[in-house]
């Protein structure tokens, strides 16, 4: 879970999300795509922040006798980033453009969610695995 007093731990979660987002966006930026390093880092960072915030809110409500479900936030993030990624995709002639960039943004959100939830071990190998997949044209 998360300790509301552990600001250093929360900062580490946010830093991991931003760093992995930057790494994911590097390849996209290198190849001249609009959604590059800053976009990927911001998607990962904002996803981590929203996840941390939902976990803290869950603890606060639980302490006061209320109920909430932080997994609903993850569902909402997945839908929101799907909408944003869908806006990147377009058809030109017989080809579909920006599918890989859209998928990469979705991965940045997933990494942010994982890092925000404290699952940095699952998030760390993501840039290497994603790069291998993208390079396997």
Overview of this structure, please?
The chain has a two-stranded antiparallel sheet with strand order 1-2. It is mainly alpha-helical and 137 residues long. It has helices at residues 7-30, 37-63, 71-88, 99-116, 120-123, 126-135, and strands at 90-92, 95-97. Strand 1 and strand 2 (95-97) form a beta hairpin. Helices cover 74% and strands 4% of the residues. It starts with 6 loop residues before the first helix and ends with a helix. The protein has six helices and two strands.
For the largest beta-sheet, the strand count, sense and barrel status come to:
2 strands, antiparallel
Rg, nearest Å: 16 Å
Numbering strands along the chain, what is their spatial order in the largest sheet?
1-2
| Helicity, as a percent range | over 70%
Ranges where pLDDT stays below 50 over 5 or more residues in a row are none
Instruction: Give the tally of structural domains.
Output: 1
The total strand number stands at 2
Order of helices and strands: HHHEEHHH
* Mean pLDDT over the full residue set: 89
**Span between termini:** 39 Å
Structural class: mainly alpha
SS field, number of helical segments: 6
Name the features.
137 residues, mainly alpha, two-stranded antiparallel sheet, 6 helices
Q: In a few lines, what is going on in this structure?
A:
The chain is mainly α and 137 residues long.
Summarize the SSE layout with pairings.
Elements: H1 7-30, H2 37-63, H3 71-88, E1 90-92, E2 95-97, H4 99-116, H5 120-123, H6 126-135
Antiparallel strand pairs: 1-2
Helix pairs in contact: 1-2, 1-4, 1-6, 2-3, 2-4, 3-4
Pfam families: MgtC (PF02308)
Main location: membrane
Transmembrane segments: 7-26, 38-59, 71-91, 103-123
């Amino acid at each position: 879970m998360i300790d509301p007093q552990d600001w250093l731990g929360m900062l580490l979660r946010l830093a991991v999300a931003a760093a992995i987002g930057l790494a994911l966006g590097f390849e996209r930026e290198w190849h001249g795509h609009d959604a590059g390093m800053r976009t990927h880092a911001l998607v990962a960072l904002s996803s981590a922040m929203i996840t941390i915030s939902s976990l803290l809110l869950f603890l606060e409500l639980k302490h006061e006798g209320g109920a909430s479900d932080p997994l609903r936030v993850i569902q909402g993030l997945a839908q929101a980033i799907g909408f944003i990624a869908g806006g990147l995709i377009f058809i030109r002639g017989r080809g579909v453009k920006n599918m890989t960039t859209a998928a990469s943004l979705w991965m940045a959100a997933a990494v942010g969610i994982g890092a925000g939830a404290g699952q940095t071990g699952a998030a760390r190998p993501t840039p290497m695995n994603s790069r291998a997949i993208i390079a396997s044209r």
